[in-house]
């Protein structure tokens, strides 16, 4: 770098620093924008990566990652522990017996309890670490091994979970367990770990195992082990969380999209700040050039300034982002645990995220600001900052923005109907999201022209004419606002529509008064009792087993004929009428081509249609014809319903998993009677109303994280709007003071400035209405359908729309009021001078 | 028998320094050390470490006292009321092509607590088992390890017929007695099947099986041996099962404390001399800072007819002549041994000086050959280096 260039940019930087010291708000706006962008980006990234990481690095508790798994055969709930003993007798000593289940403590909190052969777990870990592990980092911890393997009531919990307990013990299944905290790095998460001796007793599974994990590579013995297992279990290679990743893909993509949206909104703010500060320094920069400083030096200085701001903003944003993720993670964990049964481990973070976020921000900022810099470069030295040329520039820019918007929208329009993959649809949706704000300035000008045409002359006319001039400086903040509003409106309509659809579906799906899921050994007795009771007007049964079809995990189930016919909400069927459908469906059960009905998510994910045939692992090689596709919501697993005759023919579990009854009389009271008689936990007996409430609660959770992010984005946009309005009003101090000297009184001025701003915001909200609807439509009918496989009827929520409009109005009103208030307290002359300085 | 103790010694010291021990891997390592070493006192002070692992109650175990009457076959079974115990076999074998092979198999038992569990679960146990196996040739040395809690089907010592088992490693006698028996070890690196038989009576070490382990008789164990075992069988060498034949030696030992705090390790020898006699010999090394007078020696010259002479500490002179570095640590792999009243002056050298066992606890254990006043072969174990 040449010496004069270096000196020149050095001087420039010093001048800029002095400038920012004069008006810290300008630098502040830029940094705030960057901070917000990076915060949301990092926060969501950390949350997502942590979850995904949890799936793939999931080890057996206190042990290493399993390479192979032996799970119970499809028809069975558990493995006999003899399989484990035999397996070790076969020389597969690197294996671990695990029994797991859910238990409820005395505070009715449900816990996932895992019991394993702790000695085997730890010795496998030692092998993994290999010898010299004495310098192991997990210090300050020791297990009361003697008491653990003696089957004493001890439960291991992660440090953080243990701290959240009020007491040092847990009461599970009537026994009091002493809590032993272990370091969080052992990844227990929210699970409880006990020795197998205790677990089998707590879970009432004597002699039973849930699965066996194998740590050594047994691929060369695979067929021998399969032969030995015969039909008593399945040997499968651990997929390192691949199936969980596939299952939760759409969920994480959803989050990523939201965070990118927030990032863009944050960048809008930063860009607006840069733009404004350059505008304010235009004269200063011309003066610097007149002093003989090279343009290159000035550009270098501006570039360094931007770099510095980005670095500071990214670092702060990164730190805040990690904090944000710390708050978001429990929310995400709950969703993932409830919905997908995934376990989320405590968070990790990487410096690379900071580097990546900084680079991304810098690249985006440079890209965004390059046009400003170039404009500045081309600016003739003698040019006064004439209003006319500014307006002309703005017109050109608006035209170009509109053309780009139309192009992007056109691309989306062409490809959207073709796209079958939700990822591509999401990308196209991104184009629409970009097109919407780009078209805003042009639309705003048209709208204000329309208003001007009908507005009275005089001060009002001036006011409206001036509003048009405000569009270019405000357009960026408005774009950010529009984006946030649009996203919010669309998201609200998605969630609202979902809830309505879900309620309707639940109403059709649930027909009985009470739903019971007694333990297996009580099922027969319960059925007998129910059939004796004259007030029980109907008994409906459901059989269910977990299996796989087309390589993905599914639930295979059947119900009694009445339930199937009356509670299945058909989406598409292979027959003219429902009667015909059911007739054929039940008749085909005993033929060589039995019919099944499949859930909508399953059909969409596997790209299946009515009339296609599938196989289900639990039923062997039988080709099953899809007779119909039915709606199913909130179930991440696919579902296949077969006729009861086929179920029994295949010799799947004979006892139903759950039964439902209709009851003439007070069924709540009857529920209590049954609960006491069979000592059923509350979680196994449900009234229809309770199921509905729980289902809706669960679905709300699915969206809670997106809604939080959405609100955050809206807040970011509100902050952006606030800062833009604030800066603009400050910049307009001189013209306002001029009007004042011309005789317009303060009150009129206040009303005028405020209404100008509010008019702009209102018009933006107006634009957001159709765009939000379009985006919502696409989210519901394209992305959600393709990603989750749920058809939802769109419902428009005016209330939610007005809520966000009010928020936008309040933010801008505040932003205008503050500088105005300050102006009234300043001498007129200083306001007049502000234009010159 | 002594071999176990030897490991213990060193680890005891280690355990103390590593007091803050670690959860998983180390806890097992630590466990072993404690178990084997029997350094019970210091553990209390390291509350977060060994004490915790071993269970709070160190007391309650049966003490080793003199004049115990040994009863066979009952004493072949586990003595769960003592803290640690082992079944320990070493063998010097030769293949049909004349390759010398050393084999080791040991099953250790450690009681985590003196009280049997109150839980009714078949998984609940106060016993922990560990087994080691090794194959050593002049150029190769492989070792493997297994762990399990005491469990009737996974790891146990059961009578009629006598079975000493951990997973698929199994000593299976034909009847109540230890011999004749088969020993099957199958694992990735160590694989062998042996048929073991003997005509000789058992040899009670020390004073009628009461084997003192320190000069002040503060610690001792019950110890008996069978030094005259005939072996045939197959060993996996370079991926092939080859026939082998030769001699083996079995040690049985149990105690509730093997070593004193000051003892650093041991050097133990099982020697088969060309005159048909055998010689068991060990040295327990005291604190390095003190003179060698602090070391404690013991031995027994044994004959196939069941007779023998116990050799006392002051009659034994032994010293290392060659040190060999393994993983940066010197190990005394060659020894000079003199026992004047037995007219013994031997030089002992290893078949493979690198026979270190890189397991939960590390120690040196391998076949040796004997020259000097007698010739012969045997096994050597060095711990605490």
List keywords for this structure.
heterodimer, A: 837 residues, alpha+beta, B: AttH-like fold, ten-stranded antiparallel beta sheet, 23 strands, globular, disordered N terminus
Structural class of chain A: alpha+beta
Secondary structure: helix percent of chain B: 10-25%
Task: Work out the helicity level of chain A.
Answer: 55-70%
* Rg of chain A: 33 Å
This entry's quaternary arrangement is: heterodimer
Structural class based on helices, strands and sheet pairing of chain B: mainly beta
Order of helices and strands of chain B: HHHHEEEEEEEEEEEEEEEEEEEEEEE
Termini Cα gap of chain B: 19 Å
**pLDDT average of chain A, as an integer?**
80
In terms of per-residue confidence, which ranges of chain A show pLDDT below 50 for 5 or more consecutive residues? 129-141
CATH class of chain B: Mainly Beta
The total strand number of chain B stands at 23
Relative strand content of chain B: over 45%
Shape descriptor of chain A reads elongated
Beta-strand residue percentage of chain A: 5-15%
């Amino acid at each position: 770098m040449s010496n004069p260039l270096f000196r020149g940019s050095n001087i420039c930087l010093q001048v800029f620093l002095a400038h920012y010291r004069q008006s810290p708000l300008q630098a502040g706006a830029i940094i705030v924008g960057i901070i917000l962008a990076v915060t949301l980006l990092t926060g969501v990234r950390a949350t997502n990566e942590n979850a995904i990481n949890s799936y793939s690095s999931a080890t057996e508790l206190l042990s290493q990652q399993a390479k192979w798994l032996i799970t119970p055969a499809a028809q069975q709930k558990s493995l006999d522990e003899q399989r484990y003993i035999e397996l070790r007798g076969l020389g597969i000593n690197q294996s671990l017996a695990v029994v797991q289940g859910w238990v409820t403590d005395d505070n009715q909190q449900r816990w996932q309890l895992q019991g394993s052969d702790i000695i085997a777990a730890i010795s496998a870990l030692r092998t993994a670490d290999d010898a010299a592990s004495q310098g192991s980092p997990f210090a300050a911890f020791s297990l009361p091994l003697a008491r653990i393997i003696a089957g004493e009531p001890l439960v291991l919990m992660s440090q953080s979970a243990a701290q959240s307990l009020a007491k040092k013990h847990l009461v599970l299944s009537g026994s009091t367990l002493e809590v032993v905290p272990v370091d969080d790095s052992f990844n227990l998460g929210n699970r409880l770990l006990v020795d197998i001796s205790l677990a089998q007793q707590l879970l009432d599974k004597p002699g039973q195992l849930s699965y066996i994990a194998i740590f050594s590579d047994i691929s060369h013995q695979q067929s021998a082990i399969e032969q030995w297992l015969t039909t008593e279990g399945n040997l499968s290679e651990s997929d390192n969380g691949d199936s969980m990743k596939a299952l939760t893909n759409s969920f994480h993509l959803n989050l990523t999209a939201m965070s990118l949206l927030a990032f863009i909104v944050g960048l809008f703010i930063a860009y607006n700040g840069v733009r404004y500060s350059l505008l304010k320094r235009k004269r200063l920069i011309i003066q610097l050039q007149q002093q003989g400083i090279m343009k290159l030096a000035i550009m270098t200085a501006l570039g360094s300034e931007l770099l510095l701001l980005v670095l500071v903003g990214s670092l702060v944003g990164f730190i805040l982002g990690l904090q944000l993720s710390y708050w978001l993670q429990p929310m995400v964990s709950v969703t993932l645990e409830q919905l997908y049964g995934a376990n989320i481990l405590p968070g990790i973070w990487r410096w690379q995220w900071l580097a990546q976020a900084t680079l991304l921000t810098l690249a985006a900022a440079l890209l965004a600001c390059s046009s400003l810099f170039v404009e500045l470069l081309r600016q003739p030295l003698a040019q006064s900052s004439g209003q006319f040329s500014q307006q002309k520039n703005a017109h050109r820019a608006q035209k170009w923005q509109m053309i780009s918007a139309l192009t992007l929208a056109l691309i989306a329009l062409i490809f959207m109907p073709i796209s079958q993959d939700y990822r591509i649809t999401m990308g196209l949706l991104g184009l629409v999201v970009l097109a919407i704000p780009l078209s805003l300035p042009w639309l705003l000008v048209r709208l204000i022209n329309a208003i001007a045409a009908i507005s009275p002359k005089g001060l009002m006319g001036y006011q409206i004419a001036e509003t048009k001039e405000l569009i270019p400086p405000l357009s960026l903040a408005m774009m950010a606002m529009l984006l946030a509003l649009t996203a919010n409106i669309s998201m609200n309509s998605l969630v609202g529509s979902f809830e309505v659809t879900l309620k309707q579906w639940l109403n059709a799906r649930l027909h009985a008064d009470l739903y019971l899921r007694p333990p297996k050994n009580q099922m027969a007795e319960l059925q007998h009792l129910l059939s004796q009771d004259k007030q029980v007007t109907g008994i409906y049964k459901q059989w269910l087993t977990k299996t796989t079809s087309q390589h993905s995990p599914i639930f295979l189930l059947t119900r009694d004929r009445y339930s199937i016919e009356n509670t299945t909400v058909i989406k598409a069927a292979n027959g003219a009428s429902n009667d015909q459908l059911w007739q054929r469906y039940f008749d085909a059960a005993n033929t060589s081509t039995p019919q099944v009905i499949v859930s909508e998510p399953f059909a969409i994910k596997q790209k299946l249609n009515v009339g296609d045939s599938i196989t289900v692992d639990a039923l062997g090689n039988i080709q099953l014809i899809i007779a119909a596709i039915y709606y199913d919501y909130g179930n991440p697993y696919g579902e296949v319903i077969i006729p009861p005759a086929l179920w029994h023919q295949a010799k799947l579990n004979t006892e139903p998993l759950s039964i439902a009854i209709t009851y003439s009389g007070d069924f709540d009271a009857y529920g209590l009677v049954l609960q006491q008689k069979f000592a059923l936990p509350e979680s196994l007996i449900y009234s229809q109303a309770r199921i509905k409430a729980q289902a809706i609660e669960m679905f709300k959770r699915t969206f809670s994280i997106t809604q939080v992010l959405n609100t955050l984005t809206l807040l970011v946009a509100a902050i952006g709007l606030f800062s833009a309005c604030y800066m603009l009003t400050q910049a307009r101090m001189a013209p306002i003071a001029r009007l004042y000297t011309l005789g317009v009184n303060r009150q009129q001025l206040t009303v005028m400035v405020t209404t100008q701003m509010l008019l702009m915001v209102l018009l933006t909200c107006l634009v957001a209405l159709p765009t939000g609807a379009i985006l919502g439509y696409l989210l519901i009918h394209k992305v959600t359908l393709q990603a989750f496989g749920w058809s939802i009827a769109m419902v428009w929520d005016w209330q939610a729309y007005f809520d966000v409009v009010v928020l936008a109005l309040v933010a801008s009103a505040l932003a205008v009021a503050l500088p105005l208030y300050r102006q009234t307290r300043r001498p007129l002359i200083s306001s007049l001078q502000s234009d010159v300085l | 028998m002594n071999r176990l103790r030897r490991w213990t010694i060193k680890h005891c010291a280690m355990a103390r320094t590593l007091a803050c021990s670690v959860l998983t891997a180390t806890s097992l390592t630590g466990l072993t050390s404690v178990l084997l070493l029997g350094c019970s006192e210091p553990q209390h002070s390291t509350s977060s470490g060994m004490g915790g692992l071993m269970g709070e109650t160190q007391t309650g175990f049966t003490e080793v006292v003199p004049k115990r009457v040994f009863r066979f076959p009952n004493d072949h079974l586990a003595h769960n009321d003592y803290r640690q115990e082992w079944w320990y076999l070493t063998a010097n074998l030769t293949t049909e092509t004349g390759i010398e092979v050393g084999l080791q198999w040991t099953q250790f038992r450690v009681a985590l607590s003196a009280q049997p569990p109150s839980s009714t679960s078949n998984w609940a146990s106060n016993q922990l088992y560990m087994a080691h196996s090794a194959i050593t040739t002049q150029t190769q040395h492989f070792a493997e390890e297994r762990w399990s809690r005491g469990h009737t089907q996974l790891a146990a010592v059961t009578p009629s017929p006598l079975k000493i088992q951990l997973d698929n490693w199994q000593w299976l006698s034909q009847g109540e007695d230890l011999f004749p028996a088969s020993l099957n070890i199958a694992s990735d690196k160590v694989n062998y099947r042996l048929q073991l038989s003997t005509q000789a009576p058992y040899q009670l070490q020390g004073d009628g099986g009461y084997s003192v382990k320190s000069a002040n008789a503060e610690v001792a164990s019950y110890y008996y041996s069978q030094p005259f075992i005939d072996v045939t069988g197959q060993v996996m060498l370079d991926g092939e099962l080859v026939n082998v034949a030769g001699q083996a030696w079995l040690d049985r030992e149990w105690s509730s404390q093997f070593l004193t705090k000051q003892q650093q390790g041991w050097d133990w020898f099982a020697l088969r001399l060309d005159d048909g006699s055998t010689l068991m010999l060990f040295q327990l090394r005291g604190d390095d800072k003190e003179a060698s007078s602090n070391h404690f020696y013991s031995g027994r010259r044994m004959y196939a007819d069941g007779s023998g002479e116990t050799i006392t500490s002051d009659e034994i002179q032994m010293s290392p002549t060659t040190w060999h570095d393994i993983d940066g640590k010197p190990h005394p792999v060659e020894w000079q041994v003199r026992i004047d009243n037995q007219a013994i002056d031997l030089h002992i050298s290893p078949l493979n000086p690198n026979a270190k066992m890189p397991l939960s606890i590390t120690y040196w254990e391998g076949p040796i050959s004997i020259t000097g006043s007698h010739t012969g072969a045997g096994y050597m174990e060095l711990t605490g280096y």
